[in-house]
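Deliverable D2.4 — example input (structure tokens):
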């Protein structure tokens, strides 16, 4: 009973003892905490060493691997080039020899043409001579004919006279008895003493004489008539027999007429033949055209016309056969066309006027030159092929070069080198108006060239964007960096360049956000990634937005009088992570909320119009987005920070026309940028001392340049020659930045450490700590 009572009785510990006990427990906890912290530090140190060694080994392996690959590629490329050069020289020689052959042939052709022209002239001359001869002979013949006719006329007259005489003599016979003396005298007068001397009677003698004479005349007349009839007949009949020897002009005339008839008959025959040929050719031409028209769609789409679609054997031919058929038809068509042309020329008596390709075509058909022409065509084909091969080789070489640069960038990336993108903006209105020339050009994905008075200068970057590149193009690769920030890395993206080169356009976008820049796109990307991984991670997003104006940090979330009084300091934590002490940090649960904060901050930013830019930023804009993500599977927590910086541009007072306040702003901007330049130079030269403390800007960017961040620099340049000096300076600085190595580390804590940290925070804040917390 007593024991039960004792059990029920409450045990009271004196206050001092309890306090002592609590103190002891607190002391124990503190010791435990210290031990834990030591363990954590040790673990972190071990992890860092291991990861660094591991990283270095990996980098070395990758480096040697890619170097080997590069060497091999280079060797292949050299071999290719050698081969191409050999082939080139071989083909050049062949082309030269064929060209020479061609020239000789052309000369021969010219000589042949001259000869035929001379022959034609000669023939023309001879023809003219012959015609002259014929015409003179014809004239002679005509005159001969005329004299014959005259003679005939005379003979007829004489016959008339004789007939008259005969009539008179018959009258005299009738009156013989009565008037014998009178008639005897009359006959004496007419026929003279011949009749008297022959001893005939007075009436018979002159009659017989006249009869004989008449006979003679008749005979001569008949002879002449026969001659003329024969001559006339000779004109009608093609080949008249020559029964008797004839005067040479008659023979000649007959021969000429005979030949003329022969030619005439041949000409008409030839005409007929020509007409037939023309008709046949027209038919053949029409047929060939018809078949070709019919066949064209088959060859255009061979694959569509399969056998099953077309039962016609012609259509069911293989595509090769159809191609050869088509070729044959085309040749036939060409032949028909040329024949047509030749026949037309023959018909109208014109000489053909051929153009060089037509002549070539005819030459190709000529037996003598056929092989040379064919050879020439084959060579031309081969040349085409070679050119194609060459083009492909150049393409291969270019893609190889780009690949090499890509791998080089990848290796650099792995080494922790800062990435640098170059963006060339389009010519602005003022530059065009003052007649500026474009001197900055994107050569390929990784190279940019600048025309300088000393010649062309080339710069290499991780990416080069031309004036045509869109905001999407620029942001494409940046998504990976956003993912890194969510994974717990410290990421910084900043734009650098002279005033008016497009930094704000790249980082913020245009005024009405029709072309949003990297910042608003990053806001969306953060929440898109969070949304995608909502089942695996839980992420908290908070942000601060500052501007560095006249070397003073201002919180852009605070407006009015508070903005002037609030003091914002740049601090670094134990891990070297930069943070803004005193700056208001706002949580955002969506991209829209973050964007609204950003718009509020931008509205407070210092912007003024200068001669170089109507909306010139007079301050450096710094946005820090903290991303705390808890792995829902293992409870580990990562802390990433995404810094987005839009720097103010370096400027020359003479160019911008800055005065008073603007001059003060410009001096401050230039001073901070010059300090940034010094840091970049020291880092690239791997100097032992890096002058981060010279400016607030360099302090802010300490973890991004040579620190533990994954950093991307966008160097913006103007394409115009009026900004040559500034462009060269920017590109040189950007090249130096490329040489800087960061050692990016992931800020990840295990579940236990994260819990302990929470407990400590609670204890610090004087909040109760549950068993579950520990
Ligand atoms: N890629 C581009 N495409 C079209 N317009 C552009 C581009 N880059 C810049 N611009 C235009 O050029 C002008 C100057 O650009 P922006 O204000 O971004 O220059 P900046 O480098 O930020 O200058 P500052 O340092 O003076 O602030 C703006 O009108 C902008 O719209």
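Example output (designed residues):
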């Amino acid at each position: 009973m007593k024991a039960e009572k004792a059990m029920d009785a409450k045990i009271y510990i004196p206050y001092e003892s309890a306090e002592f006990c609590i103190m002891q427990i607190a002391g124990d906890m503190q010791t435990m905490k210290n031990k834990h912290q030591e363990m954590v530090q040790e673990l972190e140190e071990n992890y860092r060493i291991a990861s660094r060694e591991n990283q270095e080994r990996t980098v070395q392996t990758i480096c040697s691997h890619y170097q080997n690959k590069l060497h091999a590629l280079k060797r292949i490329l050299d071999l290719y080039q050698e081969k191409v050069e050999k082939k080139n020289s071989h083909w050049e020689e062949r082309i030269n020899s064929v060209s020479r052959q061609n020239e000789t042939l052309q000369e021969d052709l010219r000589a042949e043409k001259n000869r035929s022209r001379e022959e034609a002239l000669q023939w023309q001359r001879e023809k003219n001579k012959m015609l002259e001869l014929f015409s003179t002979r014809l004239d002679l013949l005509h005159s001969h004919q005329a004299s014959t006719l005259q003679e005939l006329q005379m003979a007829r007259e004489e016959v008339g006279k004789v007939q008259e005489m005969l009539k008179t003599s018959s009258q005299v016979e009738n009156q013989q008895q009565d008037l014998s003396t009178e008639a005897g005298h009359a006959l004496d007068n007419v026929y003279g003493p011949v009749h008297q001397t022959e001893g005939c009677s007075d009436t018979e003698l002159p009659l017989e004489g006249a009869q004989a004479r008449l006979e003679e005349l008749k005979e001569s007349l008949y002879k002449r008539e026969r001659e003329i009839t024969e001559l006339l007949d000779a004109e009608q009949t093609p080949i008249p027999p020559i029964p008797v020897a004839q005067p040479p002009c008659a023979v000649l005339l007959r021969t000429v007429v005979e030949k003329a008839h022969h030619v005439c008959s041949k000409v008409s025959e030839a005409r007929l033949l020509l007409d037939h040929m023309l008709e046949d050719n027209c038919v053949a031409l029409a047929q060939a055209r018809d078949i070709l028209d019919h066949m064209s769609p088959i060859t255009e789409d061979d694959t569509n016309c399969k056998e099953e679609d077309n039962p016609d054997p012609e259509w069911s031919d293989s595509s090769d056969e159809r191609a050869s058929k088509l070729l044959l038809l085309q040749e036939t068509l060409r032949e028909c066309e040329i024949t047509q042309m030749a026949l037309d020329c023959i018909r109208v008596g014109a000489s053909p006027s051929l153009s060089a390709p037509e002549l070539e075509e005819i030459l190709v058909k000529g037996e003598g030159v056929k092989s040379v022409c064919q050879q020439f065509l084959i060579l031309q084909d081969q040349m085409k092929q070679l050119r194609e091969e060459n083009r492909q080789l150049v393409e291969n070489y270019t893609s190889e070069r780009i690949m090499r640069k890509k791998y080089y960038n990848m290796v650099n990336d792995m080494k922790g080198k800062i990435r640098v993108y170059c963006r060339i903006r389009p010519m602005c209105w003022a530059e065009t108006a003052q007649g500026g020339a474009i001197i900055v050009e994107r050569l390929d994905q990784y190279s940019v060239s600048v025309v300088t008075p000393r010649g062309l200068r080339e710069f290499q970057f991780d990416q080069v964007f031309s004036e045509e590149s869109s905001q999407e193009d620029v942001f494409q690769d940046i998504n990976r960096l956003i993912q890194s920030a969510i994974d717990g890395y410290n990421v910084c993206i900043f734009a650098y360049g002279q005033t008016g080169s497009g930094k704000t356009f790249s980082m913020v976008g245009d005024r009405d956000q029709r072309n949003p820049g990297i910042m608003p796109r990053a806001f969306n990307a953060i929440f898109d990634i969070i949304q995608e991984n909502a089942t695996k991670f839980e992420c908290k997003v908070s942000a601060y937005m500052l501007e560095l104006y006249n070397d003073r940090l201002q919180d852009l979330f605070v407006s009015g009088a508070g903005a002037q009084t609030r003091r914002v300091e740049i601090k670094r934590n134990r891990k070297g992570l930069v943070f803004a002490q005193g700056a208001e940090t706002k949580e955002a649960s969506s991209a829209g909320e973050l964007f609204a904060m950003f718009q509020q901050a931008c509205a407070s930013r210092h912007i003024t119009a200068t001669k170089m830019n109507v909306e010139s930023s007079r301050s450096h804009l710094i946005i820090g987005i903290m991303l705390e993500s808890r792995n829902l599977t293992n409870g580990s927590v990562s802390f990433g920070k995404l810094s987005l910086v839009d720097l103010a541009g370096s400027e020359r007072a003479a160019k911008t026309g800055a005065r008073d306040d603007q001059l003060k702003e410009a001096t401050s901007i230039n001073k901070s940028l010059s300090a940034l330049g010094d840091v970049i130079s020291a880092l690239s030269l791997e100097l032992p001392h890096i002058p981060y403390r010279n400016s607030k800007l360099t302090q802010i960017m300490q973890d991004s340049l040579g620190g533990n961040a994954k950093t991307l620099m966008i160097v913006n340049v103007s394409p115009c020659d009026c900004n040559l000096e500034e462009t060269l300076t920017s590109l040189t600085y950007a090249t130096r930045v490329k040489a800087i190595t960061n050692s990016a580390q992931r800020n990840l804590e295990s579940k236990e450490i994260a819990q302990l940290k929470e407990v400590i925070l609670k204890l610090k804040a004087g909040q109760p700590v549950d068993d579950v917390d520990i």
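The pocket of adenosine-5'-triphosphate is lined by residues 425-426, 428, 497, 499-505, 510, 613, 615-617, 648-649, 716 (CB under 6 Å).
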